[in-house]
User: Fold these one by one.
Assistant:
Number 1:
Amino acid sequence: MRLLIVAGPPSAGKTAVVRQILRSVAGSRKAAYLKIDVVRAFEDEELRAEFSIPAKKIYSGDLCPDHMGIMILTDTLVWAEQEKADILIIESAGLCLRCTPYTTQSLGIVVLSSVSGTNAPLKMAPMIALADIAVVTKTDLVSQAEKEVFREKIRTVSPGIDIVETNAIQGTGMRYLMQAVASTPEITDAKTIRLRGIPPLGVCTVCAGKQEIGWQNHCGVVRKLESTEAIFRGD
């Protein structure tokens, strides 16, 4: 089974890219799909109805959706195997630009919207830096100059990343992505799958639900206004 992990900020066009991948493998490979979101999601229902594939969704609630994805990945692999899937596609809500869901033995696809601003890639560096392919959507809505600047900003973050520019709704310019999907190696040993990057530092008491303001009222990994580095305070 091949593992594809699709991430990116909200409304970038992740599901449109997933839909194009499903169309490209229809009839030749069986796909399974998992959508990770925070509060509500309908993509699993839409893709199940359109492509007749096994599809699930899970809500992360108080957890970061990328953290949730890592926690339930083993269960998801077992489910996809039970469904006899050849390809497992996991789409993360991608709300935390510091966390990244990509793992070893997977194809990491980051989806970016070209209308999000030319400096947007610099604001989501880890999500891009650890991906294999950057799919830039909505390129029909910007000028050639804007596309070139956006492409260079992506390469500033990850010089060697492969970039696919597309109108994902129509699926134009996605031949290279489909070739990458087809050539992605199958999982060899699920027990050895690991995160590609190091997650953010620790947990602070804000994460645990404490509502007071000011670092003086919190423990764990905290930051001061005048400090450029995080510090650990208390137990």
Number 2:
Amino acid sequence: MKLKELVKDLDIECGGLGDTEITGVTSDTRSTPKEGFAFVCIKGGSFDGHSAAADMVKRGAAVVFCERDLGLAQQIIVENTREFYPHLCAAWFGNPERELTMIGVTGTNGKTTITTVLKKTLMAFGKKSGLIGTCQNEIGEEILPTARTTPEPYDLFELLRKMADAGCEYAVMEVSSQGLAQKRTGPCHYKVGVFTNLTQDHLDVHGSMENYYQAKKLLFGICDTAVINIDDEYGRRYLREITCPAKTFSAAEPADFYAEDITLGAGGVKYVYCDGKSKHNVNFAMPGLFNVSNSLAVIACCETLGFEPKAVIRELNTMKGVRGRAEVVPTGRDFTVICDYAHTPDALENVLKAIRNGAKGKVKCLFGCGGNRDAGKRPKMAAAAADNADFLIVTSDNPRNEDPDAIIEDVLKGLEGKTTPYIRMTDRREAIHWAVKHAEKDDIIVLAGKGHEDYQILAGGVKIHFDEREVVAEALAELAAEGK
């Protein structure tokens, strides 16, 4: 593709480089594209791509996009390369986002449940759809691995191209605050943008709750209609501040879409869905008031897209849940093990309250906190667990480059003054084995923090296979071998 064709919609002056043949685009100095590629210099937190521009020319770059004069014959200066790169990637893949109805979901908690259920619902209506999210990416029924919630620009638009070429009509996407702040979504425009809630998380990236809030807010500058949870204080603030048309949903009060007569149980939630025109009974097989909110968001989004709520609810009432979200792990015993992704104080409180609501026995919570992440939430996690469980097992999550025992010490500060009994066990596998082997009749063991993840990240960034379902099975097998 000629450079002038590639950038024709990007308001770029090519000068004498317009007829240059471009074989690919990248911003990654570690990549080895075919000679004739376009390289975009992006300044990151620890590395500035401008410093590698000359070397990339030696490796075959036909053009270099940069923010300052580098003295290269092949350079084109643009104002902001980070903002420019996603637009270039989109153009390289033929702007697939224009061929799809895009739905974006942002918020601290609930994104995966909402996007997964929404995509399943659209597929049930015969609308082939793609999914971009934390657990996995999907193109129709095809499942693809994912490295991060919102992919890097090249990966994102390559994925959207595959969706469009496969005949997808919709792309349902978790849109992370970091992805928004880093402009990864480029020219993506969303038919509907959904906000779930905002609680403390990712402050290691954003620095403050205000910055976190403002990053999420960016979604509502690139969508046709916002669907906002007004049970959340930040949702109410968005409603006052955003300029796009907005609809509201609530599990607590009248809104454009809301719930009445809520019944909470360990096996799920029941309520009456109201939209001012009709009422329908919902029976959603995921527990907790937060899943009333999540299912409301799905119905509200679908109704905003033009689908009948009765048909949406019919599909919701047949769904069995989402992997790693209050997921029951089979044991064949007289106790229950539940795997959940809860890794913020609010999420942990919510899932424990939901489970405790229908518990016959003790609720025992096994949890840890990730390394190289917001350390301020560690004692808050412990306090949330202590206030909503009967027994705690404090262990590791993904320690990364931090000392796991030092992380646990931070966690334990939140248990000062609490009376909830606990043990500490640094090795997570050992901790799960202990929990299973010491389970009593009617206990509910909540494994919090890993959810869908099938790995653990240790020192030096070493990633090992670690699926909690398999670890539970190992512990159960040991019990059986011991005749217990």
Number 3:
Amino acid sequence: MSYAIIETGGKQLRVEPGRFYDIELLPVEPEATVIIDKVLLIANNGDVHIGQPLVTGATIEGTVMRHFRGRKVIVYKMRPKKKTRKKRGHRQEITRLMINSINLNGSALTSEQAAETTPLSDEPVAAIAAPEISVADEPDAQTIMPDAAQETVESVVADEPDAETAPENTAE
């Protein structure tokens, strides 16, 4: 796995080829290629290049996908007991940047095409069959209720008084 840590818009960001990131607005048109040369660290398959403060000869190549505005942030200021209130909204301008490749000294360490063509496994995926359920597999009443429970139910029913033998309450 290869990645780089870059600085853009006053922030540091970990980027990988083939992924897109939302960064602060860049002054370029959509679908244009951007080269970022403020690379702080590059890691490529265990080989790490750390800059002091920047890695010399390292660049990140990306394509601007689109520009848009972020979510609205409400800034509310109030001074208690002074009857002063300010409510302001802010929406940050954002650029969506697709990282194409990580370059070191003019040669591409990793690129988006190499990340896409790497197969996960050469083995075909086996289909998993669902188990078949037949009507004969359904449990009958005896298996649902054990014999001991069946006897308990029958004894409770037998203990109830019948309407014919029960004494009537006659308070006359």
Number 4:
Amino acid sequence: MTSLMRILVSLLLGLLPATLLAAPGLTIYNQNFAVVRDQIPLDLKAGENDVQFDGATMHVEPDSVILRDPSGAPLQILEQNYRNDPVTQQLLLSLFEGREIDFFVREVNKPDRTVRGKIIRSGYVPHNGFAMRRYGQNYAMNQMAMANASGAGQPIIEVDGKIQFSLPGQPVFPSLGDDTILKPRLSWKILSPKGGKTTAELGYITGGMSWEASYNLVAPEKGDLLDIVGWVTMDNQTGRDFKDAKIKLMAGDVSKLAPPGMRDEGMALRSRFAMAKSESAPAVTEKAFDEYHLYTLERATTLHDRETKQVEFVRASGVKSELIYVYDGALIDWNRWRGYDIANRRTNEEFGSESNTKVAVMREFMNTKENGLGIPLPKGRLRFYRSNGTQLEFTGENEIDHTPANELVKVTTGDAFDLVGERKRTNFIVDNSNHWADESFEIELRNRKKEAVTIRVVEHLYRWNNWEITQKDIPFLKLNSDEIEFRVELKPDEVRKITYTVHYSW
């Protein structure tokens, strides 16, 4: 059984205390879906029973539905149906095709009147929920667009023996019809060996629900101690309200298949922040769950349809951080070199010759208890602010991936205004017969700030994995198999040059 299957089975089957199921339960994933848990009172008779539930969402995955009696009593479901075609004007027109109804007509400078018309064709294009789930939203929408383009989506009404391809006025229906629903509906045929009342547990997976994490990081006017406030933003687009729901948030890269037409569509996630101080207990608690992390909102929360809600989940003060400057001078257009194999790249003089002058500004801090944090941080956006003595100013933002506790958080926040780098190649020699190449670089760094800085110069040894630095001005650190780093200290308004030569052999 896969990790995702174990998680969903445990959540759907309600392997949680019964008290948690008194209110709706939600486990929201940051991949645009959620697990919903409800309770349904049943009053069954012996034999077959028809049961309807009108509280489902508009994006139910019908084959994920589980209905069970928590007491363990047998609950045999003979048939399940899901309808998500709530009543609309077009649907009612289709139900009255071939019949006459009244149309209310209101015209400028004329008295209101009612005309009688016969519905020849309603123009209704059925919602194909199966096509949307199986082939994706784009496919289903294209099918509807094709139907409309062919004219099938245009109504035909007969008034006084004449045909018109539009409604003569606002239709007035005598009733809702016999086959209409006002909300998405789940219905079952349940075979019960005996009669009696019980409360069944209903669980299913639904789309249209998402969450993401966001972080505000505030630095003082002087120094690098950070105040951090983290928020979770939940977005409900399911077509249903969840009143006083027990909400859990699952963080991690859970494998979840999407319809082919939707796999490349990004989630439209909205994020807003609010800064507020609180001395109360944490609003969100966290624990490991399978291979992921589960965050629980301690208070029951009402999440309305089409609502975006924020809840604070982490707050820390005095987090030690370091502001670092990185000059990565190589500017390589990999699209240009995509068609070249490694043998051609390593001997091509133009490869790696272009450079940029920007020095990146980065912020890093340890996610540890000793540093005021030490909890798994879900992926999300970090916004950085610094006080100018009287107010906060925005200084950059970036995103982090899921970051476990006791790991380093390192993000780029922008480019330094008063720091400049310049990188140029000074020599390149290739000996193809003896399978070696020598390459030399000169890197100039200029500090136009009023204080001393240290710039980390990162160089990529792309040409081959067998290399040796044969000449250098200052020591270097080996970051990995093809990256080295020089740390250069510069005084205010100082200009320094460093050189190095690398020898490749193959």
